[in-house]
Amino acid sequence: MHCPFCRHPDSRVIDSRTSEDGLSIRRRRQCPECGGRFSTVETASLSVLKRSGVAEPFSREKVAAGVRKACQGRPVTEDDLALLAQKVEESVRGTGASQIETGDIGLAILGPLRDLDEVAYLRFASVYQGFDSLEDFEESIAQLRADHGTA
């Protein structure tokens, strides 16, 4: 890690602490050259492999934006969307993979969205799973009803 003061190419870690959410580490560093102290925040990288083959960093904001469209007109707050995006990220990171496909992210969204709002879930699932007919909606609604009966 380069020193931000003198650009020395090395630094010594003085202290390390895990962040509150457990997804990053804050490290306090000291430059052996000038003695300057500075902090860094380290996170494990998670890449999303898109259908086009391009890889880009995972973004909670993109998850929330995609779900926001399905939640339009529903009683879902921005805090609900942020919490959903956090759950999705935790679920995806829990797989241990450093690269994940967009389809797997969509699957990770379905569970928490279903718990949040069933109408938004149906909207999202209809696009994500490519519903082609009324029968697809009926099957999904029948599954939701069956799950309510067992709950």
UniProtKB/TrEMBL annotation:
PROSITE patterns: ATP_CONE. InterPro entries: ATP-cone_dom, NrdR-like_N, RNR_NrdR-like. Binds 1 zinc ion. A zinc finger (unnamed) spans 3-34. Its cofactor is Zn(2+). Residues 46-136 form the ATP-cone domain. The keyword Transcription applies. Keywords: ATP-binding, DNA-binding, Metal-binding, Nucleotide-binding, Repressor, Transcription, Transcription regulation, Zinc, Zinc-finger. Belongs to the NrdR family. HAMAP family: NrdR. Negatively regulates transcription of bacterial ribonucleotide reductase nrd genes and operons by binding to NrdR-boxes. This is Transcriptional repressor NrdR.
